[in-house]
Amino acid sequence: MTKAIDLTLMAHEIMRLHKVYIIPHVNPDGDALGSSFGLCRFLRENGKTADVVLEKEIPQGYAFLGNDYILAEKAAEKRDVIVLDCGELSRIGKSERIFMSAGSTLVIDHHETNDGFGDKCTIMGSLSSTCEMIYLIIKALGLTISRETAFFLYTGITSDTGGMRYSCTSPATLA
Fold first, then answer.
1. pTM here?
2. Structural domain tally of the chain?
């Protein structure tokens, strides 16, 4: 049964995990990639084993984010899973087998249409992006955001707000 939890509780759930696969939706955009790479970097900086899992090679337009990910067919170890920026389970494609065998599943998303398919979910349609949610999760822990993590999160926020021009951009997003 899925349990909806707030950002602070999600932050503590994330830090409780030790080995994690982070999965964005198929054909990932800037928010999916930025939130995945940003959370992965943050977790590694805090002593966790974390890897981003993609269905296929990173889209060429986002190659500047690097190649620190694994392809779904190569993810063999059983781990906990965090799904980011994905409104429904069917949108994780080949990674669904990883999700189904996970110890626990967390879902973090800013799409109001998300039906909460993980064990625990935080869905906040009022925010600009999943990257903004990851930023707030890190801040809820009272931890520092490294320059590298900030780079990834900024990429996703900029992408999903159309360069801070879309109506989803709030004063909090800009701050």
1. 0.93
2. 1
